[in-house]
Amino acid sequence: MSSSTPEESRSIDDHCTPDALLHTAPARDVTPEDLVMAAGRDVTPKTLDWARRKLEAEGPVAIEKLLP
Questions:
Q1: What phi and psi values does residue 24 have, to the nearest 5 degrees?
Q2: Which of 53, 46, 45, 51 is nearest to 63 (CA)?
Q3: Could you give the 3-state DSSP secondary structure of residue 51?
Q4: Is the separation of the CB atoms in 18 and 11 below 8 Å?
Q5: N or C end of the chain: which has fewer CB within 10 A?
């Protein structure tokens, strides 16, 4: 078993991506289907209604709350 630390096992070119670069706004408007799929749910009339209500209440930022 290796006794090296994670930092020691990284290559010189390996680095962590800053959190601000991991989150991006969608390139287009968020649709109810996008929100349903981001939530990991099946696209059904019930989940589309849920997504429409969530988008009306929170706007496009609602999808950012579901994505890492």
A1: -135, 150
A2: 51
A3: helix
A4: no
A5: N
Task: Please provide the average confidence, as pLDDT, over all residues in the chain.
Answer: 79
3-state secondary structure the chain: CCCCCHHHHCCCCCCCCCHHHHCCCCCCCCCHHHHHHHCCCCCCHHHHHHHHHHHHHHHHHHHHHHCC
19: Cα within 13 Å, side-chain hemisphere: 2
Q: Tokens 């006794």 sit at which residue?
A: 3
Compute the distance between CA of residue 62 and CA of residue 35 in angstroms, rounded to an integer: 8
pLDDT over threshold 90, residue 48? yes
pLDDT digits (tens, 9 = 90+) for 6-25: 555 555 566 676 766 655 55
